[in-house]
Design a protein that fits this description.
By secondary structure, this protein is of the alpha+beta class. Among the domains are: about 120 residues, Roll (PH-domain like); about 60 residues, no CATH class; about 55 residues; about 120 residues, no CATH class. The chain contains 14 helices and 24 strands. The strands form six sheets. It has a seven-stranded antiparallel β-sheet with strand order 9-8-7-13-12-11-10. The chain has a six-stranded antiparallel β-sheet with strand order 16-15-14-19-18-17, with helices on both faces. A four-stranded antiparallel β-sheet has the order 3-4-5-6. Helix 1 packs antiparallel against helix 2, helix 5 crosses helix 7 and helix 10 packs antiparallel against helix 11. The chain is flat and about 80 Å long. The N and C termini lie far apart (about 70 Å).
């Protein structure tokens, strides 16, 4: 015999948790997994164990006997673990959630009761994470979000539920009716981990940063124990017969090597078990992580494009990373290593282009389309910036050297000789990397040298254009366009394009959006002269330019 369950009657859910019926045929209130208490106790035992030894040594070093010191340590550990267990038990009893046909509700709190609710049709992500202890206990943390940036009010967090319940919630809340018969070429598994990709970890910017952090950590820890001077003397003894410049070079190489090892370890932790797939209903899912397992879901209807990221070292190795340009993606505040927009780690460029095309459901990757170069004035501006950035500090050092000490004169000469050619090379490379174009439903823009970025943005996702032109840009006859969108970084720039070239590009990319701010041009010979020798732009030599900016700039 079946029928409505009376209010307050305990009911066992599919994952074994005890819930409370709400009466009638309405949705049931569910509770967090009871094994949450075990996870909390295990963490507190680790904390207590780590603090017990130094506390015991500190107490026994005084006038107290060892047994009295041990008693104090045990009492403190018991109070810590017991208090934490009671707090977790109260939180477990006071937290409940339910999945209704229209809304997801979460009630929690003891003294301050919070009642939060999200409309199901606004839910855009259900992400699962689990650290090693939680994975051992079969638990996951569930983050349910709407993709809005409202100081956490658009996210519900269930900490913790069973793994089966987490997967059930993800499938239930992200279920969407499948449109069409599907596309075998772009559905299913799009990419899986290739162990050979790890070779790109040491050439990323993470390696030197980790090396510097390791050196700083050694000095900081030695300072805590009052041994920093001994560490410095020990390093000096190892390099007693080495000149100061070579000692600096050797230490930099050692720090870089340590950073490379750290980058390899970080890559393994972040990208182990990686898998990118498209699920029925149009949801992209990224799973990765060795110790901390992460599962990030992205609805295709939130996707507005793709960003191909090529840091300098990775680009020299002919590799690239793929990021999503989508609405409602932000950095996970609880996991600084989980950038939710990452779809693919640094991989060979051909693989990155293939995955980008599959993610966008395009036969060819928009990021591989030929782009129009920018006028020679853009190159001149970058070379001038490079010369100022290199020769300016050298001139300051030379003046100080003439006033204070000749040592600074030698340093100024070294900066001028070494930094200036490098800065000019980077400036020329930055100019070569400038480009923009239109391919199908996407506008494409590329820029950067230390971090080259190629963005393919849906033309339908552009909601506005911002035209920026400084005094120096006006003299050079160039301007910067910013395509405003609700996705990704909010705006993507087309730097230092020719005036009529850029305005024609904007007008063609999103017809009608910029038209009220354009008027027929009277003379565009100067713009075409700026495009350089043989430069291909959106303005053909046989077709006169038809637009120019009005005096009012946006």
């Amino acid at each position: 015999m079946t029928g409505p369950v009376p209010d307050g009657t305990p009911v066992t859910a599919a994952d074994g948790t005890r819930v409370t019926a709400t009466g009638g045929a309405g949705p049931e209130w569910r509770r967090l997994a009871p094994r949450t208490l075990l996870a909390g106790v295990a963490v507190l035992l680790g904390v207590a164990g780590g603090a017990a030894l130094p506390a015991f040594l500190s107490l026994s070093a005084g006038s107290r006997p060892w047994w009295q010191a041990a008693a104090w340590v045990v009492a403190g550990a018991t109070l810590l673990v017991g208090g934490g267990f009671v707090a977790d038990w109260v939180r477990l009893r006071r937290t409940r959630y339910r999945i209704g046909p229209d809304r997801v509700d979460l009630h929690t709190g003891l003294l301050v009761v919070k009642r939060r609710s999200l409309a199901r049709d606004r839910i855009r992500s259900v992400d699962l994470t689990a650290n090693p202890l939680e994975r051992l206990l079969g638990l996951v943390k569930v983050r349910i979000g709407t993709g809005e940036h409202t100081e956490g009010e658009s996210t519900l967090e269930l900490d913790l539920v069973s793994r089966a319940e987490g997967e059930h919630l993800r499938h239930t809340l992200l279920a969407r009716p499948a449109e069409g018969a599907g596309d075998p070429a772009h559905d299913g598994v799009l990419a899986v981990l290739d162990p050979r990709w790890i070779r790109y970890a040491p050439v990323s910017f993470v390696a030197p940063l980790l090396g510097g952090a390791a050196a700083g950590a050694v000095m900081q820890v030695s300072d805590w124990f009052g041994a920093q001077a001994k560490v410095i003397h020990w390093i000096g003894d190892r390099f007693e017969d080495v000149s100061l410049p070579w000692m600096i070079v050797d230490l930099a190489l050692i720090a870089t090597f340590v950073g490379m090892l750290g980058a390899l370890g970080l890559w393994v932790e972040m990208w182990a078990n990686y898998r990118l797939e498209r699920e029925p209903g149009g949801t992209l899912r990224v799973r990765r992580g060795l110790f901390t397992a992460r599962s990030v879901s992205l609805e295709e209807r939130r996707l507005r494009g793709i960003e191909l990221v090529e840091p300098l070292g990775v680009r020299l190795a002919r590799a690239a990373r793929v990021d999503a340009v989508a609405t409602g993606l932000a950095q996970d505040d609880d996991d600084k290593h989980a950038d939710l927009k990452n779809l693919l780690p640094p991989v060979p460029r051909a693989v990155a282009d293939r995955v980008a095309a599959q993610v966008l459901r395009e036969p060819e990757p928009p990021t591989g389309a030929p782009l129009a170069p920018h006028p020679r004035a853009a190159r001149t501006r970058r070379v001038r910036w490079a010369l100022w950035s290199a020769l300016g500090p050298a001139a300051v050092l030379a003046l100080l050297g003439a006033w204070l000490t000749p040592v600074l004169l030698y340093l100024a000469g070294g900066v001028a000789v070494v930094v200036t050619p490098l800065a000019v090379l980077l400036a020329l490379d930055a100019y070569r990397n400038l480009g923009h174009g239109i391919t199908g439903d996407y506008l494409v823009t590329r820029s950067g040298t230390v971090r080259r970025s190629t963005v393919a943005l849906q033309r339908s996702g552009v909601i506005g254009w911002t035209v920026k032109q400084s005094w120096f840009q006006r003299r050079a006859g160039v301007l910067t366009l910013s395509a405003t969108t609700a996705a990704g970084e909010g705006a993507y720039d087309v730097y230092d394009t020719g005036r009529s070239q850029g305005l024609a590009f904007a007008a063609e990319a999103v017809p009608g959006l910029l038209a009220p701010f354009l008027e027929p041009a009277r003379d565009t010979a100067g713009d075409r002269a700026n495009t350089g020798d043989g430069a291909h732009t959106t303005d053909t030599p046989d077709t006169p330019d038809t637009t120019k900016a009005r005096p009012t700039e946006r």
